[in-house]
Amino acid sequence: MTDKTSVLYNAQCPVCNFEISHYATYAAQNALPIRFDDLNSDALAQWDLTADAAARRLYVAHDGELTSGIPAFIILWNQMPRYRWLARVVNLPGIHWIASLAYDRVLAPLIYRWHLRRQRAAA
Fold first, then answer.
1. Strands across the sheet with 34-38, in order?
2. CA 16 to chain centre
3. Using alpha carbons only, how large is the chain's radius of gyration in Å?
4. DSSP 81-116
């Protein structure tokens, strides 16, 4: 990965694609050095993750370190001036704990199950 910050997401997931496309547009409009990779493309090979693992949560590589979940969102938001306030708020101890719990236990598993249903329906 050549960029300082890279994001791996599932462009076939309507929720993921909507949110990350917004960030990608913002990054492009502001010439921010953030690369956005769709896990359904050849770019996945650069991540040392399986497609299944990558579909389970958001991954961000920043300065050579791979992060996922809420910590990955915080790194991504910190790279975008408009969203730094959100990174600061979500990184507060109590809020971070609640956000991580909600993402890890509810949102990510729900979105992943939805992804699996879409895959079965397409087969």
1. 34-38, 5-9, 59-62, 65-68
2. 8
3. 14
4. GGGHHHHHHHTSHHHHHHHHHHIIIIIHHHHHHHHH
CA distance 16 to 10: 6
CA distance 57 to 41: 17
Is pTM beyond 0.90? Reply is yes
Q: How many helices (H) and strands (E) does the chain have?
A: 6, 4
Residues 8-65 pLDDT 10s: 999 999 999 999 999 999 999 999 999 999 999 999 999 999 999 999 999 999 999 9
- What's the rounded Cα separation, in Å, for the pair 21 and 12? 12
Instruction: Give the list of residues 6+ apart from residue 34 with CB closer than 8 angstroms, or none.
Output: 3, 4, 5, 6, 7, 23, 24, 27, 76, 79, 80
Which strand (E) or helix (H) includes residue 23? helix 14-29
What is the signed CA dihedral for 114, 20, 17, 56, rounded to 10 degrees?
Answer: -30
